[in-house]
Fold this sequence. Notes:
The chain is of the alpha/beta class. Helix content is 64%, strand content 13%.
Amino acid sequence: MSKHRVLLVDDEPFNFELIKPVLEQDYELDFVDAGEACLERVNLSTPDIILMDIEMPGMDGYETCKKLKTNGTTQNIPVTFVSGLDSVEERLKGYEVGGDDYVIKPFSAKELRSKIEVAIKNKTEKDQLQKNASEAMGTAMTAMTSAGELGVVLHFFEASFHAKTYESLAQLVLDSMSNYGLNCSVRIQTPYEDVVLSGSGQPNPLEKELMEVLKSKGRIFDFGNRSVINFEHVSLLIKNMPCDDQDKYGRVKDNVAILIEGAEARINSILVEEKLRLQQKALQEVMAGAKMSLQKIDDKQQKYKKANMAILDNLIHGIEESFMHLGLSEEQESALLSTAQGAIEKALKLYDQGYKMDKELENVIHGIEKVVKD
């Protein structure tokens, strides 16, 4: 199997010498020292990934990347910026010109290799998805026309009721966006899960970072031909807003905002369902513990009852035997014995009442247990 090709664009040849021993065993490496040379080289031989320096004389890395991404022949080549610039503004600018990832100098060999592997994997998946999308475009456009823009929202609301997981809901959002012809990534964040999906394969690392950073930019934030729509638990990144058609742009923004608000409502419903499931589980555990405790109490009561009966029987026998030494009359013996037996009967009656109370408590627990299961 041939090696994947990596093109390094950097005005410092020394940087190529640093990267070479890290990658040459597994990748075919190439090097150019300027943005203009990069554009010429990719027209002769297409690399699988470009590692792009930002600060270069003449055409810098941003401008070079922008030209690559606006060329139909080279637009799908993943570009990973390699730079010492580490501000949010620099990363945002890198994403706006089409960058797929961003590596801060100095970096570890492990980090760089991992970034390259992810980028090449994402490109392979994206190429396959684009092929599938091209084949399905005719069908999708027909469905879009017949359903109508508002119909997409209504269909999403209906289908969202059946989404039981955050991932299935996120996929439903992407499916709905594809009916508008929008290429999007969606992120759902809850205390239980963090789900990120993209309509063009695995979301690149820079997209994840931007959705996190732009979370604080308000309900709707536009930059270039991209928009981010934020709610408490869900964010949608739209990568190809129709900015050249203001009427369509306005309709899409309004409809998509309503749709994402519906997704937020469904997320809140799932959160309530999860909370109820956890409470039900906890209550079941409490019921099981109470049931076990009642059984232990019942066993002890039975044991104590037998012990008490034995003690009381011995008491009666002892009283009867002592009559021979007390010199009591038959009436006195009968009265004394009757008094002792009456006290014993009262003690047993109190025990039985306590036993009935335990049984009533057990019935209550069984009733609660049945409600929890139902």
